[in-house]
Amino acid sequence: MPVALENLKLASRADMDTRRLWKVIVLATFVGVAVTFWAFLDTNYRWGGVGAWRGVTAFNVVERWTTLPSGTDVRFLVTTGIGAAVTLANTILRLRFLWWPLHPLGYLLAGYYHWDRLWFPFFIAWAAKLTILRAGGIRGYRKALPFFLGMVLGEFVLGSLWGIVGLVTSTRVYAFRDW
Fold first, then answer.
1. List of residues 6+ apart from 136 with CB closer than 8 A
2. pLDDT digits over 33-83, tens only?
């Protein structure tokens, strides 16, 4: 959705007809979803479970529901509701009070299965942001932001380029997917 909104904003600034553009965006979304589903299924059936971990949890839950039907899982619903309430409360507090230290994304990421690998990069990013804000204020933060966004973009671009090099040369290269 943010990409579509950015496109519509750029189109309106360029005096383009946004009525036609949103139709193209919707069409491209449906075509993209259909092609992605087909490509994922075709790849998995042809080469046998590329990235076999994808969809396993959802499949196991659906399989359990169909083979061993049971009543409503109240505990699951209550804990999901508590998690949603904590995230919502964190979001409201962060939007309401500038001094609120907890980000709602932190609560969600704490349960992420790769958090043991990602906590230190997040800590470094937090420490860099805090240092820049304390030393240079919001002006320093805005000046430093393009550098850090460029680092993220560079990681994705180089990871993609190495993936293409690996496909073209049929050699093992930098595995961008294993970060």
1. 143, 144
2. 999 989 888 877 777 665 556 667 777 888 888 888 888 889 999 999 999
